[in-house]
Structure formats: C-alpha cells, structure tokens
Model the fold of this input.
Amino acid sequence: MDLDTVKERAGPRQFSPDDDMPREYREAATRMIQFHANSEIMGAYLERPFIREAPSLDRKLAYSAKTQDELGHGQLLYRAAESLGIKTREQMLNELANGEGKFLNCFHYPMESWVETPMIAFFVDGAAMRRQATLKRTSWEPYAHAMDKVVFEEGFHIKHGESILKELATGSKKEQEMVQDAFETWWPRIIQFFGPTDDDSTHHDFSAEVGLKQMTNDELRQSFLNQYLPKAEKYGLEIPDTPTIEQDEDGNYRVAEDELDWEEFFQIAKNEYDPGRGQIDSRKRAHDAVEWVRETLDEYETTASGHAPQAAD
Amino acid sequence: MIWEVFRQEGAGKYHTHCGNVHAPDREMALMFAQIQHGRRKPTHSIWVTPQQEIGEVNEDGATFGGTTDKGYRWATQYNITAAAEEVADSESEQADAEKERGRR
Ligand SMILES: [Fe+2]
Ligand SMILES: [Fe+2]
Done:
C-alpha cells in the first residue's frame, strides 16, 4: 500500500498485519507503541517498591495487582509493536536495558515516599488513560486491541490511586502537608506529560495523518486539566503558582508553558537526565537479578508434562 | 455440516459468536447466517467457519483465571465516583465481567 492510500483509508482499526503497510507507517507505529510499552514497564518498576511500603494489607495487594497489570500492559504492547515487523520484542527490551529505549517523562523521576504514590497512580495514570481511551480508535488494529484490555484494567488503577489521595488528603495535618508537598513537586512534570504545544511536536502530523494518533497534545492536556484540576481542588490541594494556569471565558485552561523547565524535559527525552538514568539502570539490575526465575520457568515448561501452569489472574 | 457463526455489529468491533447453522457449503452457510443472524440486528459483517476448525480448551484441561476473590483489583470495590468518563466506562466493563463471574 502506498502512503497516499494509507492516508486516504486511515481510520479506527483500519490496518492489520494482513495489510502491506509502507515502511514509514510501520516505523512511526513502532516508535509510538515501543515508547508506550517502555513506559508501562518503567512505571511498574517505579511503583514496585511501594508494594513493600504500603501501609496496609489491602493497599499491598492492590499495589501488587496494579504493578502486575502494568507489566502485562508492557508485554501486550511489545506484541502489538512486534506485529509491525520492524523490531522484535527482544530488541526492544534490550534497547530499554541499554538506555536507548525512550519512555514517559514522569517515570524518569524517582519516588521516595508513600505520599507521592497518588501523583503517579491517580494523576499520571489518569492522564495516561485520557490518551489511551482515544487510542482505542488508532489505525493499527493490534494496538487498538491492546488498548481494549489496558483500558479495561485502568479503571481500577485510577480509583485505587484516588482512594489513596483521598485518605491522605482527609488524614492528619501532617499527611495533608506532605501530600501538598508531593503535589507541588510533581505538578509541573504532570503538566509536561503531554509534551510541549503542538507546533513544537515533530512526530504528530504524520501520526495523525495515518490515523495512529487520535488527539493532539494540546487537546489531551486541555481535557486532562478539565477533568483533573477540579479533582485536585476537591481534595484541598493548592494548585502551585508555576506554571500559571488561566481559564478563558469558554472555560478552557491556558498554561504558561514557558514557565516550565523544557531543558530538563528534553534532556529526559534523550535519556540524559541523571536520575532517569538511575531508573533505567536499577530496572536493568532488578530484571537481571531474577534471570534465574525465568530460566527455571523455561526449564519447567519444556520438561514438565501433564501439568497445566496456573493462570495469572 | 455445521458452521459456527460470528456477527460483527459495526466496523472495528469484535466478531462475537452468535450460534451455528447447518449448510452443505460455505456459500450456503453465509446465506443462512445472514438470514438467521443479520436480519433483525444491526450487522456489519458475518463470519462462518466449519465447526471442526474451532480449537478448544476447557476448564478440565486448563486452569483459567478470574475465579478467586480478589476484590482489591476491581474498580467497583472503591467507594469513589469515577474521575472521568473513561474511568466510568472501564468500571462498568469491570462490573459486567464481575456479573459474568457471579453467574458461574
Ligand atoms: Fe498501564
Ligand atoms: Fe495503570
């Protein structure tokens, strides 16, 4: 199929591995899905320590279930990316380990304390879900199918995250102060989640033309603010002064983007931000440390007979 | 010969199994399937496949998930109004899945 036909036919779930897609399409889709898959994995590793840190058994169970989901999302997405025939799963995992694989800005920052968890589990998951819900209509069908399962599961993540936020925001004075501090640290990063204004985004035009992306960064940032800014206020969080956010008469939010640290953002985008490199390396170490588990499982699967493996539900 | 029938309601949606038809060949099977399953319900496409072509594994031969009580991993268990439309959608999909589990 030539590029003009692709653009003409571009629509929700229009293309699948049965179609002969041009290289430009397959490369753009690979870049987008690989980024998404990497982000799921890096997010899971960022949150993993909080299975142990969780203050109650319920929270521990929920956190371990959520982390399991995120890793599953990563695996599903590597499959969807692999179906484009540009890179193998192995290759993409290697790129993630050696620091070539790119992923979401928010997952480059380490998390130190339990009070920070709703910043990821509520706001970042909430922002991600806004985007993911639109990707159910992406043109690469295997990607859309992965989104069906991801979005099915995300509802739990966000409600769980909000439930932690609610607990902290209605807790002791100390807890309220700590969660406000965490919010001030994370808020600018969360705003940057959607990237800079569209004129500066290099990949959007093509991805939109071939139906891979359904909404622009600006539209997504806007709809995120519409939905989640009132939530922050509802829990008594004070919106930090920077960046300045103003509402025009139509109710739309305007973010003073030049007040945000784009130098750091682009450093992160190139995997050159030190704390982010730390995240990449610590994931690699954690992954390598359980090599023996994968080996044991492989061995078990090739030698064990008549024993159905337990489903991971 | 038995043909299993899968109906798709609209473009991009999943084909879901809706029953079977008896027919001597594929062409007839498609025709019967249209009459039986595509007349009264909005339909975008229909698939038929010979019954013996379906692969199956059932609960005797596999351990499936979704039967243990893991309340903590369901959106419906958190007493909080959904933050956004897509969160509410996800929650109602989960509620449907829960109902199906309860039916067993
Ligand atoms: Fe996820
Ligand atoms: Fe999530």
